[in-house]
Amino acid sequence: MYNKITAADIAALQAIVGTDEVLTGNAINPDYAHDELGGISRMPEALVRVRTTEEVSAIMRHAWERNIPVTVRGSGTGLVGAAVPIEGGILLETTKMNKILSLDPNNLTVTVQPGVLLMELAAFAEENDFLYPPDPGEKSATIGGNISTNAGGMRAVKYGVTRDYVRSLTVVLPNGEIQTFGAAVAKNSSGYSLKDLIIGSEGTLAIICEAVLKLVPLPKVSVSLLVPFPDMKSAIEAVPEIIRSKVTPTAIEYMSRDTILFSESYLGKKFPDTKNDAYILLTFDGNSDAQVDQDMSTVAELCLKIGALDAYIVDTEERKKSVWSARGAFLEAIKASTTEMDECDVVVPGNQVDTFIKFTHELADEMNVRIPSFGHAGDGNLHIYICRDALSEADWQNTLSVCFDRMYAKAVELGGLVSGEHGIGYAKKEFLKRQYGETPIVLMQGIKKVFDPKNILNPGKVCF
Amino acid sequence: MKILVCVKQVPGSNNVEVDPVTGVLKRSGIASKINPYDLYAIETALSLTERFGGTVETLTMGPPQAKAVIQETVCMGAQSGTVLTDRKFAGADVLATAYTLSQGVRKCGDYDLILCGKQTTDGDTAQVGAELSEYLGIPNISNVLSVDDYQDGRLLLTASLDDQIVTLETALPCLISVDGDINTPRLPSYKIRKTLTDDSVKFLTFADFEDQNADHYGLSGSATQVERIFPPEKLSQKQTVEGDADTQAEALYALLLEKKML
């Protein structure tokens, strides 16, 4: 159905971006065939590294005319195979579109190219006394990737997710046309929100080439609290109580001792406390020591009242690093602890988190498989990992299939959704279809057809 | 084992401005914290008492607000601590600081072991520990990586001499300065913070000391004079390694060897 890339196509692509930026065959690093976890792999016919919106536009005009599939890739840190070129064709890499273009302190916005890394944007904002609130664990992801999955992260409890910070997007449509959706404005009632359709569309509708993002003033004080509990049940049950206390932490994460120990071994660095089975990690921010201390004390008192063994204060850069660097490494640490793994990124209503976690523990016992988990207890988004360990290929596939079926069914039963922040990509398509049923999927397919009637942009993902 | 840990209150951030006229750090209005290097010493002390029994006290010199860092050490598990505070102590260099601390130690009691961090994040001289041991007339071992055993009143230690690691045995009392990054310091406990009382922090002034010659303290007791303080020049370089995976790995390995990072 698609055309294969020919020598003439390569010459045309080289004419757009330069000879050095078009790679083919063995010159392409095998890492470009996959992402971090999607379970699918395919090499592109050509890897094209772009620097400007105009280059992206010219490439799409060529691909449109020649009917060549194009898949966009940022840092390749995705977890559902969204950036894998499953139909071959062009893999368009945006990491060289990595400029922070401007800071507008009057409108509290920053304009960036899509290849800027989350950690670069976070540092830039902080240097200028601002905060870019979305805080996914993978700091080397690109902003383009974050927008494409509507990444959430650890501060979502108080600040929301990536979507809440995107004011406008300049995109290239599959036919090469350049369009800007949204504007650097705080309110917008101007027709259908095309900008919001692009956010979370995982590179299937248009290519993000520039984004105007909202910033907030940098809170002057930030303190975390590491609260040990005797077991996971009491830790998780504390979360709804904390939320009911009306203090709004920026983050509420839960973690088990096992996961912390994996992280210690992966990082080669001890965690400040591993004596207890379960922990909740919270952060509070604000503009005065007194206010933040009051919030922290309220929650510490509450936790002690409902069974916490203590509440450790994480108040300096060094202490935050010792705790949060471990939290940031959990995914890689669990991955390093097993032979192979797959993940479930469900989101359930906040008051169902404990029910869901308990369910995964029962499932692990029943299936005789290791299912470690960690996640955003405050917003219901859980990261649950099924570890292969010593299972044979046949047993592994069977275990995965049963566990995923049961976990997604349970999430739906509890009023949750298939993905909280990692997206659907290729790996979770069937589960999305199963949850939504025909009409929502047909509507999504209709939207895709309007944007991309030739289906050349990231084909075979999300709803197809 | 009766242990004393010396700590210092330092600016909470690395981005502290220097007054261009006086050459002194602008500390007012800046949040403060325990010198991060001292946390490794506190953790070493607390771990030792967990293994071998004993008590941990802490000592600092500074303005009355330095009480906060002593309270923090108590929240980490120390039993109590002392602040040496007096206007006469102001402007002390490393020598006068070590002398003042030695007077404080003599007043506080007899200790089997005195622990210091390697250096501070503000002064950065890494000399106070050694000079304090000299004034107290006890052995000093620097750059200690671990305290491995305690038997029959003697400590077995591992220390770094930069190009080699040595195992040492020492009699007590002695003073050791521990290296940075040798452990992960425990966090202060909110539960202990709730129960803090005034008894946990003691204040000593010049009037409490044995040596009543004011010329031995502060600016007048200092052997050095600071002419200028300036932040170190920041150097950041970025190098990109291109090529296929094997070429990149080779190039990276060669680069790390060249920079002596491997």
Shape assignment of chain A: globular
End-to-end separation of chain A:
15 Å
Number of beta strands of chain A: 18
Which two chains share the most extensive interface?
A-B, 29 and 20 residues
CATH domain fold name of chain B? Rossmann fold
Radius of gyration based on Cα positions of chain B: 21 Å
Number of helices of chain A: 15
**Order of adjacent strands in the largest pleated sheet of chain A:** 5-6-10-8-9
Structural class determined from secondary elements of chain A: alpha+beta
Please give the largest β-sheet of chain A: 5 strands, antiparallel
What is the number of helices of chain B? 6
Strand content of chain A: 15-25%
Low-confidence stretches of chain A are none
CATH superfamily of chain B: HUPs
Main sheet strand line-up of chain B: 9-8-7-10-6-1-4-5-11
* Cα-atom radius of gyration of chain A: 22 Å
Helix and strand element order of chain B: EEEHEHEHEHEEEEHEH
What level of helicity do the residues of chain A show?
25-40%
Number of domains of chain B: 1
Detail the poorly predicted runs of chain B.
none
Describe the fold and architecture.
The complex is a heterodimer of chains A (about 475) and B (about 260). Chain A has about 475 residues and is α+β, with helices and mostly antiparallel strands. Helix content of chain A is about 35%, strand content about 20%. Chain A has helices at about 5-15, 55-65, 120-125, 145-150, 155-160, 195-200, 230-245, 255-265, 290-305, 315-330, 330-335, 355-365, 395-415, 430-435, 440-450, and strands spanning about 20-25, 45-50, 70-75, 90-95, 100-105, 110, 130, 165-170, 180, 205-215, 215, 220-230, 250-255, 280-285, 310-315, 340-345, 375, 380-385. In chain A, a hairpin with a 4-residue loop joins strand 5 and strand 6. Chain B has about 260 residues and is an alpha/beta fold. In chain B, helix 3 (about 95-110) packs across helix 4. The two termini of chain B are about 40 Å apart. In chain B, the strands form 2 sheets. Chain B has a 9-stranded mixed sheet. In chain B, strands 2-3 form a two-stranded antiparallel sheet. The relative contact order of chain B is 0.18. Chains A and B meet through helix 9, strand 15 and helix 10 of A and helix 5 of B.
